[in-house]
Specification:
198 residues, GmhA/DiaA, 7 helices, carbohydrate metabolism, isomerase, alpha/beta, metal-binding, Phosphoheptose_Isoase
Length: 198
């Protein structure tokens, strides 16, 4: 690897470290994350489920978070219900073909979501039509709505019961903050649910 590549990677790591440090000191983000964990715990304790949506890298995050809830984060425990609505290629392509991509998640929320469930919608920009439509449909169906976005995505909050805002406008850094915070939320959820079993 040449020096220029080393410098680019080092620069990214330095910016990533600084962004994580800002997030760790962001009292609004931390408070929001705690409330989000509590809302998800309430739903899972009641036998409800967590639905998760996102596009691109946020779709990967949706799958990652669902895996932590259904599988386990760190502790051996019963499985809990979480579904990433980003994984069913037949549903995604059928809905996209018949209704348009803007409705690929809303249609699934309509079919799978019930009152008392939670929708976690991840959008770094806060402006993705497919994500906003999913939130609207979730509201119609009585789901608790949670959003993850970046510094420029505050308008998304109008559709969310709780909005977590990563303190950055750089998409890769927003994604890193989202996933790191999601891990903290998963650990909090797991600790609360494990306490129920003790």
């Amino acid at each position: 690897m040449n020096r220029a590549a080393d410098d680019l990677i080092a620069s990214h790591l330095a910016r990533s470290h600084a962004a994580m440090a800002r997030a760790a000191q962001d009292t609004a983000l931390l408070a929001s994350a705690g409330r989000i964990a509590a809302k998800i715990v309430t739903a899972l304790r009641s036998g409800r489920k967590l639905l998760i949506v996102g596009n691109g890298g946020s779709a990967a995050d949706a799958q990652h978070i669902a895996a932590e809830i259904v599988g386990r984060y760190k502790q051996e425990r019963p499985a809990f219900a979480a579904i990433a609505l980003t994984t069913d290629t037949s549903a995604l392509t059928a809905i996209g073909n018949d209704y348009g991509f803007d409705h690929v998640f809303a249609r699934q929320v309509e079919g799978l979501g019930t009152s008392g469930d939670v929708l976690l919608a991840i959008s770094t920009s806060g402006r993705s039509p497919s994500i906003l439509n999913a939130l609207r449909k979730a509201r119609e169906r009585g789901l608790t709505t949670i959003g993850f976005t970046g510094a420029n995505g505050l308008a998304m909050g109008e559709l969310c019961d709780e909005l977590l805002v990563a303190p950055s406008d750089d998409t890769p850094l927003i994604q890193q903050i989202h996933l790191a915070t999601a891990h903290g939320i998963c650990e909090t959820i797991e600790a609360a649910l494990m306490q129920d079993l003790s």
